[in-house]
Structures are given as C-alpha cells and as structure tokens.
C-alpha cells in the first residue's frame, strides 16, 4: 500500500507547527494516496522514524518521504537521507522514495510579489528589495538565491540584494547596511521563510535597532500559501516517478 510521509522542520513556536499542520491537511485532501502522515525533523513529535513506523503499521509497503523545505541544504542532503537509511534496515521489505524540497519555482516568486503588494501604499513603486534567507554553508544555497534574485529583477525590480540569518554572508545587519547605501526610498525586506517563527522575531529586532528603520519595510514570510499546495502536488508526482536514493540500502 502506498503512503506519503511529509517531513516538516519543527519549531518551538506553537503557531508555526499549527500553520504547517493546517497546510498539510489541505494538501492531503487533494492527494489520492491512502496513507498520509506528518512527521518532524526536530523539536516536535512524531519523529521521522516514528512516522515511518506508523505508516508501516497501517500497511504501507511503499513510502514517499516528502520534505517540506524551501531549498536543498543540510537537512535535505544529509539528515533526512541518514534517517531513511536507518529505516531501510528496520523495514527491509518497504520501498522508500525520497522527494524533493519546493526548490526555486515561479509560483514562489508569485508569492513574494504578493507579499510586496501587501506593503505597498498608493501607486508607489518597489525599487529596492532585500531577500533574507535562513542561510547554509552548502554552495547550492547562494546559487539558489542568485536565481531568485534574477527572477525578481526580470519582473521589474531594479535593485535586489540577498542576505542570510546565519551560516552565510552577508548576514542581515551587513545586508541592510549595503542595501541602504544606494537607497532613495523604501527598502522592502522579503523573508524567504515558510512561517513567522523565531527568525522573523530576530529580523524585527535587528530592523528596529537601525537608525533608518522608518525606511525599512518588513514583509510577511512566504507562509503556507495556496500556490504551495499546487507545487507540493507537483513534487509528489515527481517523487512517484523516480527515486533520489537507491531502493535498497
């Protein structure tokens, strides 16, 4: 029997967990697979192994492990595959298929523009944007953000820069300083995050401490937008058609 196990990040912020659960419940309603469960990488239960065990108890013999992550970095490349390897040893008769994160996609760019429009007043144009990512030491992350920057600029934003909250440079404070050097109007800060958790609170504190904070406009995080349901369905269909990991350990 086929199963899908969604792997969310997990958070100390209860609202963040509630948001992802609501989003995934809406996804489950639109995906015709008999067994669908949610698990978490950290801080929240069930763990991935617990979720897999639950799927097997319900009769699953093929499990799509679908990460609910924006981009591919350490969790996607190292942590989740390592747990799948353990699961293969525990459940040798179960076939595991490893899905892909959301990745860089035009529908996420659409959501970013929606977040910008929410903050616009009157007929003002958005000229300067600072995209803020979580950050990672993996080289794929700056490559992905370079692509995101290019896609935003192709849609008419003149100045787009990128910074990170951790593990990559420039950090947010540096990004704000650099972006403010050529600023003539407002700087729109776009968090490339799924929900408004601890990192968003950190952003607000850093922005509030800036001398030019009146010209800094913090947009909402990407959030669990309806367009992401469509993208997640696409990723699951892709997952069904190929494996990123061998079917046997």
TrEMBL record:
<protein>
    <submittedName>
        <fullName>Sirohydrochlorin chelatase</fullName>
    </submittedName>
</protein>
<keyword id="KW-0479">Metal-binding</keyword>
<dbReference type="InterPro" id="IPR002762">
    <property type="entry name" value="CbiX-like"/>
</dbReference>
<keyword id="KW-0456">Lyase</keyword>
<dbReference type="Pfam" id="PF01903">
    <property type="entry name" value="CbiX"/>
</dbReference>
<dbReference type="InterPro" id="IPR050963">
    <property type="entry name" value="Sirohydro_Cobaltochel/CbiX"/>
</dbReference>
């Amino acid at each position: 029997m086929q199963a899908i196990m969604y792997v969310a990040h997990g958070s100390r912020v209860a609202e963040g967990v509630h948001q992802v659960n609501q989003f995934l419940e809406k996804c489950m309603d639109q995906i015709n697979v008999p067994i669908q469960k949610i698990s978490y990488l950290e801080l929240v239960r069930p763990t991935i192994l617990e979720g897999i065990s639950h799927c097997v108890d319900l009769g699953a013999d093929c499990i799509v492990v679908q990460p609910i992550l924006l981009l591919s970095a350490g969790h996607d490349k190292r942590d989740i595959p390592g747990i799948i390897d353990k699961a293969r040893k525990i459940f040798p008769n179960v076939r595991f298929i490893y899905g892909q994160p959301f990745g860089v996609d035009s529908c996420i760019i659409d959501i970013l523009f929606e977040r910008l429009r929410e903050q616009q007043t009157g007929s003002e144009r958005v000229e300067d944007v600072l995209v803020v990512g979580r950050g990672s030491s993996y080289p794929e992350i700056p490559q992905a953000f370079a692509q995101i920057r290019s896609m935003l600029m192709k849609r008419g934003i003149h100045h787009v820069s990128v910074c990170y909250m951790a593990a990559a440079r420039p950090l947010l404070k540096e990004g704000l300083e650099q972006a403010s050097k050529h600023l003539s109007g407002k700087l729109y800060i776009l968090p490339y995050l799924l929900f408004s958790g601890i990192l968003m609170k950190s952003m607000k504190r850093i922005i509030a401490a800036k001398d030019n904070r009146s010209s800094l406009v913090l947009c909402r995080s990407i959030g669990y937008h309806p367009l992401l349901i469509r993208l997640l369905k696409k990723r699951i269909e892709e997952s069904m058609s190929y494996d990123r990991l061998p079917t046997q350990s």
